[in-house]
Amino acid sequence: MNTCKHCNIQFKPKRSGSTQAHCTRDCYTASKQKPLNACLQCGTETKTKFCSSSCSASYSNTNTPRRKKTDSRWKDCPACGKQHLNKEYCSLACRPKETHEHYRARMNEANARYMARRKFQTPADENISALQEFYANCPKGYEVDHIHPISKGGLHSLSNMQYLPWKENRRKSNKLA
After folding, report:
1. Sign of the torsion angle spanned by Cα atoms 42, 45, 49, 52
2. Phi and psi at residue 140, in whole multiples of 5°?
3. Could you give the count of Cα atoms lying within 13 Å of 100 in the half-sphere of its Cβ?
4. How deeply is 23 buried, as exposed, middle or buried, from its count of CB atoms within 10 A (0-12, 13-18, 19+)?
5. Do 171 and 143 touch, CB atoms closer than 8 A?
6. Is the pTM of this model over 0.85?
7. I need a surface site. Which of 42, 51, 90, 107 has the fewest CB within 10 A?
8. pLDDT for the residue numbered 134
């Protein structure tokens, strides 16, 4: 006679001389199951620490220390006032929409600055913000033109820039006059 390890009932093994440890298949499967625990967040019975991913996230959000918002890296969003790290706006929804004209002006200025820097043609004392403003204030239908083209040795400075209608600027290309 053997004693079941799960229910402690005396039973006769199916084969003589067998070291069978459980009286039935149900006792065997019941002994293999993990005991139920209480969910750390809501207290419902579960086999793991949490009953669901939402309980796990809630537990993590409430029981982990947060960075102090007095840290100098925290900033207030100018649009909604929420505190966030390292960026001017907390999300894309809060960031003001950039018009196509402003975007093109910014990209054109950046490209001209890149080309001039590549050829060492931006003077060291040149005011970069003044150059950016010059591109940003370009009237509609006009483009910023370098009077003496950068490709021909001209400088990327305010004294070498003018506004030209886009057709004339494209026609002029990199010619001197």
Report:
1. negative
2. -65, 135
3. 1
4. buried
5. no
6. no
7. 107
8. 92
